[in-house]
Amino acid sequence: MKDRTTLVCSDYKGLSIRKQCEVLEVPRSSLYYKPKGENEINLKLMGIMDRHLTDHPTEGVVSMVYLLTGLGFVVGPKRIRRLFRLMGRETLYRRKNLTKSGLREYIRPYLLRNLKIERPNQVWVTDITYIPMQKGFMFLTAVMDVYSRRILSWGISNSQDAKWCKQVIEEAIRENGKPEIVNSDQGSQYTSALWINYLEGLDIKVSMDGKGRALDNVYIERFWKSIKYDYIYLNPSEDGYDLLKGVKWYIEYYNQKVHHTTREKPGERYYGPTRKAA
């Protein structure tokens, strides 16, 4: 999210917020932050589960019941399943039915296996993650260039709809050009007509993680772990605007630090020696 979000003024009488967003090319979804109402105990449970699942993404409902009851909470599988759905969490294991997350006709094969990624904009990956706050929660989505590990665009919302995800990748394409491949999981946002028709209409190849394959989208999973342990868990946000400011600061820092995987700064690796990172 760029600095132009700060130019939108809710008290300005000359233009509505909708019109200001159109002029500034800012997705309105990035400006509204109304956390969903959940009681304090459920928020605490989701926070504990999010920390644990960040390190152990293959554990599911039964494991969470054991974990939480061991900590003194009275919970059962039905409650944990509901909280999983609320968090957008899905246990990573193989299933017989591969169509529940989205429509079969919009599911695409995984294209990154054994692919040598050797240039910017060859492969982008995207995903959504749950973000705990002091009195609620939000969702964060991001688009990453795999070659450089640079975060190209991102957004925060209180929902996980396909329109929001499309707005974020539209911003990435508008500011960086289009990639050859975009990889995601098989979530309903990405197995929708809105998502697939937009990308394939631009002649972009769509790749999707195999069900139950925890490592297929490992690049952005590593970023989620970094931002949560380095910032989110240490600085729980009071509200959406506080979260927006903090995430913006962290992503700018992340794009300019040397990564152990590439030995370079993502911004410099993405733009190369002849272009200055934005």
Blueprint of the fold:
Layout: H1 17-24, H2 40-55, H3 61-70, H4 77-87, E1 123-133, E2 136-145, E3 151-157, H5 162-176, E4 181-184, H6 193-201, E5 205-208, H7 218-232, H8 240-255, H9 266-271
Parallel strand pairs: 1-4, 4-5
Antiparallel strand pairs: 1-2, 2-3
Helix pairs in contact: 3-4
Strand arrangement, major sheet: 3-2-1-4-5
Largest sheet: 5 strands, mixed
In CATH, the topology of the largest domain is named Nucleotidyltransferase, domain 5
- Per DSSP E runs of 2 or more residues, the count of β-strands stands at 5
CATH class designation of the largest domain: Alpha Beta
CATH H-tier superfamily of the largest domain: Ribonuclease H-like superfamily/Ribonuclease H
Total of domains? 2
Low-pLDDT runs: 92-102
**Any guess at the CATH architecture of the largest domain?**
2-Layer Sandwich
Number of helices: 9
State which percent range the strand residues make up: 5-15%
Helical amount among residues, as a percent range? 25-40%
Q: From N to C, what is the helix and strand string?
A: HHHHEEEHEHEHHH
Radius of gyration: 19 Å
Transmembrane segments: 60-77
Pfam families: rve
InterPro entries: Integrase_cat-core, RNaseH-like_sf, RNaseH_sf, Transpos_IS3, Transposase_IS3/IS150/IS904
Keywords: Membrane, Transmembrane, Transmembrane helix
